[in-house]
Design a protein that fits this description.
mainly alpha
Length: 177
């Protein structure tokens, strides 16, 4: 049994639950308010489809930030015996990284829905979702998911410099670019 590996796994699990999960829920609440769809949820299946798509989209955008934080934890652990300050620094950068990813992602998704609404004159998809119409909810939900899939690599590249990777131990092979 490797106690160090168990501890690292537990830390990653807690980060995923609290940092990722809580962050996605908070970003989802902001996106719902921006779309003015929170009040329409109730028994409205259309609003449920849109909200579920928003949650999936935000999770896709936050995933890469969490993975970068996990990689930094792994590298910090492999570099030698890490100090508490080094681990707190990694955690702080991780919180900032995921927060920025979700903040920018929320803005991106809102902008995508807003732009789609402008490109379809005469149809207010968000209002139609509020009225319980499922077809516009499916289309808007697909737009959110496609935007997240297409934007996630760019967002990852934009935020890649935020979480500083520690120095690799001497003799570690790294791939050439």
């Amino acid at each position: 049994m490797n106690l160090s590996l168990i501890l690292v796994g537990a830390v990653k699990l807690m980060l995923g639950i609290f940092l990722g999960g809580l962050g996605v829920v908070l970003a989802y609440a902001v996106l719902s308010r921006l779309l003015k769809s929170a009040q329409a949820l109730g028994d409205n299946v259309a609003a449920g489809v849109l909200h579920a798509s928003a949650l999936l989209s935000l999770a896709m955008l936050a995933r890469n930030s969490l993975l970068a934080t996990y990689d930094t934890i792994d590298l910090t652990m492999h570099a030698g015996k890490p100090t508490a300050l080094a681990l707190l620094k990694v955690l702080g950068h991780g919180v900032l990284h995921v927060g920025l990813a979700l903040g920018l992602g929320t803005g991106l998704l809102f902008l995508g829905v807003w732009l789609f609404n402008r490109l379809t004159p005469g149809i207010d998809e968000v209002a139609a979702v509020g009225e319980g119409k499922v077809a516009p909810a499916l289309v808007l939900g697909a737009i959110l998911i496609v935007l997240a899939l297409l934007a996630a690599p760019g967002l990852e590249a934009l935020l890649a410099g935020l979480v500083p990777f520690p120095q690799l131990p001497a003799g570690t092979m790294v791939p050439s670019t």
